[in-house]
Design a protein that fits this description.
single chain; 720 residues; alpha/beta; Rossmann fold; Aminopeptidase; 4 domains; seven-stranded mixed β-sheet; 26 helices
Length: 720
């Protein structure tokens, strides 16, 4: 038997077993790239004659027989395939291992389908220059600064995973083929799946239209969530002639919903045209803008939709269904419950929650699902109870590096799952960050060996290249990482911050049993003591603000230095930046940033946060005074195109009061009046002035500011 025949036969056998058990066939192919590429196309021609193939990566040119069946997908665009199904997925890790994409896309492979994971040789993979490292490397670090702990972690799990076919291809040797059978898979699709899905369909069909009712559906991938929505929608339209609106991040995410609605309509004898008249997809923003009448609104992949939009839907539509996938890769299902369930408690007392646990897309015991949950730490997690008898003197606080975490799988799992419970944006990518990011330090507090809390800290090294510092200051460069330093420079006008070492708290999490008991404050105090022994000048954090969260940071000694003027697109919160000095240099930077915050607050309290009563008392107020030298420089940067309008909108208003507006031509003065002085929105300003939109309006405002600044200089107006 030839080499090609040996691994073809092995693949055919693995795929046949998977089809018989209605599970996915995961195949690991490791080796030299030319060897893999030379043998892969003939195999695909034989094993997938009538199947579409999705290749994540950059394949070599396929043979003509496969060109029409091959879809090439960038890993970063994985969300375009959510809610859909496929038979064959090729994930080419030689182009980078994107953890979120891998977890999400493998969930779209149906039972009997095929996953091919292509990697460099096993021994070389951890030291491989993975292109995906670029997403975790802060400037000026390179792949040589990454130790490859995450890829070692993956390889170890692949080595021990059951139900995988492994093919190793060496340049001058025969293929090494091994297969570890999975004994847990059973062909029980029609039984176990139907039980779970029928409960959900019943809950959907009993939702009371037109009354204050709500249903939340959560499920792992492959549980038939979208199918259940479609089936129930077809039944409701057949029985009650309701109008049902469906919204989701994209239509592609609900393609499976509409497919099952159409299939069910046919079974029920419902005319397809009638179905289309009463089951309508509408994008979330369009739905809120138009607010068409509806009996029920179905929101699929709700974790990916901003919380304020979900809240607005509850306000406008009485009967709403929120359905989302656990570990949704836009954020976790646990996080969805943290931010949405309390809102439902308040606005829809008596709402119901259904969790779909039985798989529909494949059978129980699927080896690929077991591997994903195990290797990416996606298993549902309930933290074990903490010791009952202990005191603060027993608390320990230590730093753990990637090597330590790699060889402490239980500790790694505890930390990651604690972060998952604490923050809605924790995704599979964060596990790679924990293990590999060279700019990240992981601190953990323990009590009698149990994890009590964790802090993720990003170290931001100072910039020392004058041309780069100037480019960052002018807004032409935004090096990856260094968020805190660039916030100080770009948003707070403190250029010198770019030359100073800082630390930023990325995440802080406390065991659910001890939340609200001072553990978080204790960890921040311990962290400060450690950082005071380094060259770091200050420590800060940026987060979606709430009243309680801001109180927490202020109680820890941090000062509020900035509030963003736009809500976060997921949590619906304004971004806050807080910081605490560690030495005199840090105190100077914070003082300068706070001065800018004070000057900005008079504008924000009137125009940005007027409808936010809990924010207003936290805004320091100061009467408008003459523009200061640093503020004039910020306005000059705006004129040059190096600052956005929102960065200086308060200074433009002060400029209005200090400059002679007669220097502006009539049309320019009208524009200035509408946007700067009256603060009308961009669309209204465009209508009033006849300008095409925001870009053209901003260009004209820059010219107006140039003229007015020049008039100040001519008149000898004080700069402050």
């Amino acid at each position: 038997m030839s080499q090609e025949e040996s691994w073809r036969d092995a693949l055919a056998s693995a795929l046949a077993c998977a089809r018989a058990a209605n599970v996915r066939a995961p195949v690991l192919i490791q080796g030299d790239a030319p060897k893999i590429d030379a043998m892969l196309w003939p195999m695909l021609e034989q094993l997938t004659p009538n199947r579409q193939i999705v290749w994540v990566g950059a394949p070599s040119p396929p043979p003509s027989t496969l060109r029409t069946k091959l879809e090439v997908l960038e890993a970063a665009r994985f969300q375009t395939r959510l809610g859909q199904e496929m038979d064959c997925l090729i994930f080419d890790a030689r182009c980078g291992f994107h953890a979120d994409a891998f977890a999400a896309l493998t969930g779209t492979v149906r039972g009997g389908g095929l996953l091919l994971l292509l990697t460099p040789p096993a021994q070389q993979w951890p030291s491989f220059d993975d292109p995906d490292y670029q997403r975790i490397l802060a400037h000026p670090l390179t792949h040589q600064d990454v130790d490859g702990h995450y890829l070692r972690h993956l390889q170890a799990h692949l080595d021990n995973a059951s139900g995988w076919l492994r093919i190793t291809l060496a340049r001058n040797a025969a293929p090494i083929i091994s297969y570890t059978a999975s004994s847990s898979a059973s062909n029980t699709k029609s039984l176990t799946g139907a039980v779970s899905q029928s409960v959900v369909i019943t809950a959907l069909r009993t939702l009371v239209a037109g009354q204050q009712d709500a249903l939340a559906i959560t499920a792992d991938r492959g549980r038939g969530k979208s199918a259940a929505l479609g089936i129930a929608a077809a039944h409701r339209i057949t029985e009650q002639t309701e109008t049902i609106l469906v919204t989701a991040p994209s239509f592609a995410a609900v393609a499976n919903l509409f497919k099952h609605a159409e299939m069910t309509a046919t079974e029920l004898g419902l005319d397809q045209d009638r179905l289309k008249q009463h089951l309508i997809f509408i994008a979330p923003d369009d739905l809120l803008q138009r607010r068409p009448a509806a009996d029920v609104v179905l929101v699929d992949e709700a974790a990916a939709i901003p919380t304020p939009i979900l809240a607005s839907l509850l306000e406008h539509y009485p009967s709403v269904v929120f359905a989302t996938t656990l570990h949704g890769y836009e954020g976790t299902g646990q996080g969805f419950s943290l931010r949405v369930f309390p809102m439902l408690d308040k606005r829809r007392p008596g709402w119901r929650h259904v969790t779909m646990s039985q798989p529909m897309r494949w059978s129980q015991g699927d080896p690929l699902e077991a591997f994903i949950n195990d290797a990416l730490l996606l298993n549902q997690y309930q933290p074990a109870p903490l010791p009952t008898n202990w005191n603060e003197s027993e608390l320990r606080f230590e730093s753990l590096d990637g090597e330590t975490l790699l060889h402490s799988p239980q500790r790694l799992s505890e930390i990651f799952q604690l972060l998952t419970l604490a923050h809605y944006r924790t995704t599979p990518d964060d596990l790679r960050t924990l293990l590999d990011s060279p700019g990240l330090e992981v601190f953990v507090s323990t009590i009698q060996g149990r994890v009590l809390g964790a802090v993720l800290l990003s170290h931001e090294r100072p910039f020392d290249e004058p041309p780069l510092i100037d480019a960052i200051w002018r807004g032409t460069r935004r090096p990856r990482g260094h968020l805190l330093q660039q916030l100080f420079a770009q948003q707070m006008g403190v250029r010198e911050a770019l030359r100073c070492p800082m630390a930023r708290v990325i995440r802080i999490a406390v065991h659910p049993e001890r939340q609200g008991c001072g553990v978080g404050l204790w960890m921040l105090r311990a962290l400060k003591k450690i950082l005071e022994q380094t060259d770091c000048c200050l420590i800060g954090a940026s987060f979606g603000v709430s009243d309680s969260l801001l109180q927490f940071w202020e109680h820890a000694g941090y000062r509020l230095l900035r509030l963003g003027g736009k809500r976060d697109h997921v949590a619906g919160a304004y971004a806050a930046c807080v910081a605490m000095s560690l030495d005199s240099e840090g105190e100077t930077l914070i003082s300068q940033a706070h001065d800018r915050f004070v000057r900005r607050s008079a504008f924000d309290s009137h125009y940005v946060f007027a409808a936010e009563p809990w924010i207003l008392p936290r805004l320091p107020s100061q009467a408008q005074e003459a523009l200061q030298a640093g503020e004039i420089e910020l306005l000059q940067l705006f004129v040059e195109g190096s600052r956005p309008y929102e960065n200086v909108e308060d200074l433009l208003l002060i400029l209005s009061a200090r400059a002679d507006l007669t220097h502006l031509e009539e049309k320019a003065a009208a524009l200035w009046l509408a946007k700067v002085q009256q603060q009308q929105d961009w669309s209204e300003v465009a209508r009033l002035t006849g300008l095409s939109g925001r870009k053209q309006i901003t260009a004209q405002l820059r010219e107006c500011a140039r003229v007015l600044l020049a008039s100040l200089e001519t008149a000898g107006a004080p700069a402050g």
